Amino acid sequence: MPKKRSGGGLTGTQQAAKFLGVSVLAGAVLAGIALPAAGALGLAAKGTVQGFDEIPANLKRPPLSQRTTILDSKGGQIATVYSRDRTVIKLADISPYMQKAIVAIEDSRFYEHGAIDLKGVLRALNRNAQSGGVSQGASTLTQQYVKNVFVEEAGDNPDKVAQATQQTLGRKIQELKYAIQVEEELGKKKILENYLNITFFGQQAYGVEAAAQRYYSKSAKDLKVEEAAMLAGIVQSPSRYDPVNDTQEATKRRNTVLQRMADIRDISQAEADRAKATPVNLKVSKPKNGCITAVSGSGFFCDYVREVFLSDPVFGKNKEDRAKIWNQGGLTIRTTLDPKAQKSAQASIKEHVYQTDSVATAVTMVQPGTGKIMAMGQSRPYGFGKTETQINYSVDKQRGGSNYGFPTGSTFKPFVAAAALEQGRPPTQVYPAPFKIPYPTVQTCSGNPWVNTDNAEVPNEDESEVGPYALKEAMAKSVNTYFVQMIADIGMCPVMEMTTKMGVVQGNGEKLPEVPAISLGSKGVSPLTMATAYATFANRGTYCTPTAIESIRTADGKSLRVPKSTCDKVMSERTADTVNTLLRGVVDSGTGQQAGLQSRDNAGKTGTTDARRNAWFVGYTPTLSGAVWVGSPTQQVKMENITIGGQWQEKVFGGQVPGPIWRDAMSGALEGQPAPSFISVPIPDPPKEKDKRKPGDGKPGDDGGQTNGGQEPFPGISIPPDLIGGGTNRGQTNGGNGNSSTGGWPDLG
């Protein structure tokens, strides 16, 4: 006795034999079922069972492409991204009305036949013969599912889509063989589930769950009978029966489905009549795809996550493999973004810099010790409008940022100080630091000195800034000539080594050039790079690479490996603590007073570049580091006599506009959080001018001006030789290998 399968129908062998009896032996007749021309026979040219058997028997069913959900660190949704809007669900989560409606209108004998409905074939043959054309096809729901698998595998490739949908007898025979396989492997319920998840319902919705959300803003399990009938009717022609654009035509189709459900007794005629009389009541949800829909201004962070996924080898050995996984979707990506910090950053941005201003701002926050990116925002939103942009001002070019980053100004000076301290210079180090000096000769890593062949000079911001200065005061006042002399004293190599270990590179990914002007922040760097580097000081000398992704889970619940932050000790704790003490002075009494936080220990540095094209404040607490940049992305706007955020600014300084942005953003992000303290390092102040005694004035402790033989201006503090007036080149040349350019502009503090 022939073997029966669950749901009725014949075995695969019987199906093939019967099908071939109808099609291959009478191919021209079968071609009239659904083919426009009997000559397009494809595999039918072989005309044998052998030809049928040569078709590969294993239908590959790749995972369906789905939407990917990006979450913040607390599990809140940031955005959804997808190549196809689809959420795969179980049959149990689909309304029984929806299951009955799709079967009723697409394949009412679905549970009675096998892979091919022979009665349906004969019925179609008869009706097509009567009409003299192709008025009816005979594809079963299983065959339609197989066809959709081919279309899904083709993706967005138009040639492959055309091949997957071509109406040839060869394609029909191929679909049949795969349909036989699917029927034997899956059974009816699983086929129905797969079909409802794969098919296209129009309006960018793939699968019944996305369709229910798109048209009715509800889950598929909650669909009423008239709603299910509407969706089932769309499948035959999503454009023709689109209820959004043609409610009348869609209603007619819905009523046809309802009547069909009554005819086959899935519902009563009274139920069908009541549903037909129900007005179409759509509750359309607009597609929300991509980072442009991200909440709390986190579109740029969302895009950064995508860039990390597509570029990091942990997700695939090459770009194509990574892109395939990303486009496949179905991922749940939990990120490091702290919603509280992000909202605070965006609120501060909105308060201080308007979207329509001629300049923009970018704010990035990083957690010391972990490298986790806590917030990332900017004043020009993610988009395509006049005052919108898709360029992420916070990151390097390779992650979607600007081509070169932005010159950092004096925010670079702490790196020079850290390098000098690591070289053994004391925190009381004094340099002459006059108002203006020529750039001095500086030793480079190659051993060839950089020589100032152009006689370029570097001035301080104000003519009153005349040394000598010790490090503490020079940092607080951001004295340019002091740090140029410091870099001349220790050489370029310690600074290059320090910044390399702290991850400081130019915005285009290249290393910083070995020129003394680098001490004044002449080269472009991204805010994320600066925030991460300053987090090293907060973390007492341990640098951690930035990271944005906490975990990734696939649609089937598996965890993917994600890139982890790597942390390395790049300076001694003593050096970091000393820099922290120095930078506390900047916010306490120096150029960054407007940025200072009142409720907790904080430190930071201001920076303003030539012609005030860029202004920065980079600062941190023991638990959070943040960088704020303000300027023109094109570097064309000089921030003088300018209105920013509704406030008139005669001259913009790093502490004046970026500083308050940093203060407000950090205050909100840290509200209610513990407030640990820095470990302070005592740094004695040098004697002030008024305390310098004339010999023999009889005051206690007077040594008659003979301290250290009367040779040092400050007791216990030495000035390196050859630095007065900028030093000399000591007879050295660069042998043609040095860069005679200063590499940038003077910093304005």
TrEMBL record:
> Which Gene3D superfamilies does the record associate with it?
Biosynthetic peptidoglycan transglycosylase-like, DD-peptidase/beta-lactamase superfamily
SUPFAM superfamilies xref list: beta-lactamase/transpeptidase-like (SSF56601), Lysozyme-like (SSF53955)
Segments of skewed composition (Low complexity): 739-749
Composition skew (Gly residues), residue ranges: 724-738
Write down a Pfam family by its short name.
Transpeptidase
**Where in this protein does the record put region Disordered?**
664-749
Q: Which reactions does this protein catalyse?
A: Preferential cleavage: (Ac)2-L-Lys-D-Ala-|-D-Ala. Also transpeptidation of peptidyl-alanyl moieties that are N-acyl substituents of D-alanine; [GlcNAc-(1->4)-Mur2Ac(oyl-L-Ala-gamma-D-Glu-L-Lys-D-Ala-D-Ala)](n)-di-trans,octa-cis-undecaprenyl diphosphate + beta-D-GlcNAc-(1->4)-Mur2Ac(oyl-L-Ala-gamma-D-Glu-L-Lys-D-Ala-D-Ala)-di-trans,octa-cis-undecaprenyl diphosphate = [GlcNAc-(1->4)-Mur2Ac(oyl-L-Ala-gamma-D-Glu-L-Lys-D-Ala-D-Ala)](n+1)-di-trans,octa-cis-undecaprenyl diphosphate + di-trans,octa-cis-undecaprenyl diphosphate + H(+)
Parts of the chain that traverse the membrane = 20-45
Q: Would the keyword Protease be found if you checked this record's keyword annotation?
A: yes
User: Which UniProt keywords are given for this protein, alphabetically ordered?
Assistant: Carboxypeptidase, Cell shape, Cell wall biogenesis/degradation, Glycosyltransferase, Hydrolase, Membrane, Multifunctional enzyme, Peptidoglycan synthesis, Protease, Transferase, Transmembrane, Transmembrane helix
Could you state one GO cellular component term attached to this entry? outer membrane-bounded periplasmic space
Tell me which InterPro entries the record gives: Beta-lactam/transpept-like (IPR012338), Glyco_trans_51 (IPR001264), Glycosyltr_51/Transpeptidase (IPR050396), Lysozyme-like_dom_sf (IPR023346), PBP_transglycosylase (IPR036950), PCN-bd_Tpept (IPR001460)
All copies of domain Glycosyl transferase family, residue ranges:
77-261
Q: Which family does it belong to?
A: In the C-terminal section; belongs to the transpeptidase family.
Put simply, this protein is called Penicillin-binding protein
Q: Which organism is it from?
A: Streptomyces lunaelactis
